[in-house]
Amino acid sequence: MSARKPADWTTAAAYIIVTRIFLVIAAAVFLIRLWITGGDVSCVFSPDPALCTAVKSVR
Question: Is the Cβ–Cβ distance between 35 and 49 less than 8 Å?
């Protein structure tokens, strides 16, 4: 007898589903922020992307 229990496939499937949901949400947030900045990738990760874009357009 082995001391280790084989992994249950439902646990692995749950991890895969949760990971995919997280990636979809992260991609959606990134694309929304990219849309707000008008495609300016350098402003996507700023705390306020609209303000970053406005300040960059004044310069």
Answer: no
Structure tokens at 46: 């700023």
Helices 9-36 and 49-58 sit at what angle, rounded to 10 degrees?
30
Contact indicator for 43, 56 with CB cutoff of 8 Å? yes
Rounded-to-10 torsion of CA 36, 38, 25, 46: -70
Over range 1-22, report the average pLDDT.
83
Q: Whose CA is closest to 48, among 59, 33, 58?
A: 33
Biggest CA pair distance of the chain? 72
pLDDT band at 1 (very low <50, low <70, confident <90, very high): low
Distance (Å, whole) CA 6 – CA 4: 6
